[in-house]
Specification:
Layout lengths: L1 E6 L1 H10 L1 E2 L3 E4 L3 H9 L6 H21 L9 E6 L5 E3 L9 E4 L3 E2 L3 E6 L5 H15 L3 H11 L4 E4 L3 H6 L2
Antiparallel strand pairs: 1-4, 2-7, 3-6, 4-8, 5-6, 8-9
Helix pairs in contact: 3-4, 4-5
Length: about 170
């Protein structure tokens, strides 16, 4: 199953150095709940659009990780990995985003398909969003506007062999 794992540049460095992300991990995937969410909203979404929705949910969760990681670059990071289905379970909590999953096992670097990360131009907007993401989660329209500014930046795509060189540029 393709899983999108929210991360930070600190977590990404650990992935490169340790060769794995240590489980359990929270991630996002195309789950029945995510499919149902789009079906209920009358928005038809194909599998590619659902994958993108899971990726964006992971990027938003990455803002929350940045809030507790003062040493990470103010960039959203998402690790995309193919994880055995048996290691993935949907999160059964109505207060979580549709598509939220728990990955019980470690995720080895060999299972990572790609990494998605903001470029330098996004750092100001991402930094501002990190400061208000919890307020946005609680319904503040002003905070949501700031988060939307950060989410307006497209994430760059990196192949696994490009992760180390990309981190060296930070």
């Amino acid at each position: 199953m393709r899983v999108y794992l929210p991360a930070t540049t600190t977590i990404l460095r650990s992935l490169v150095e340790d060769g794995r992300l240590t489980g359990p991990l929270t991630g996002f995937a195309v789950t029945p709940d995510l499919r149902g969410f789009y079906a209920r909203s009358d928005a038809e979404a194909d599998s590619e659009e659902l994958e993108y929705a899971a990726l964006l949910a992971a990027a938003r969760a990455g803002l929350r990780l940045l809030d507790i990681d003062p040493f990470a670059a103010r960039r959203r990071v998402v690790v995309s990995a193919d994880v055995p289905d048996a290691a993935v379970a949907p999160v059964d909590d109505p207060d979580t985003d549709a598509g939220a999953v728990r990955v019980a096992a470690d995720v080895p670097l060999a299972d990572v398909v790609s990494v998605h990360m903001d470029d330098a131009e996004a750092e100001g907007d991402v930094g501002a969003a990190v400061n208000v993401v919890l307020e946005a989660d609680l319904g503040s329209e002003d905070a949501q506007f700031v988060v939307d500014q950060a989410e307006g930046h497209e994430l760059a795509w990196y192949a696994t062999q490009e992760i180390g060189p990309a981190l060296e540029l930070l």
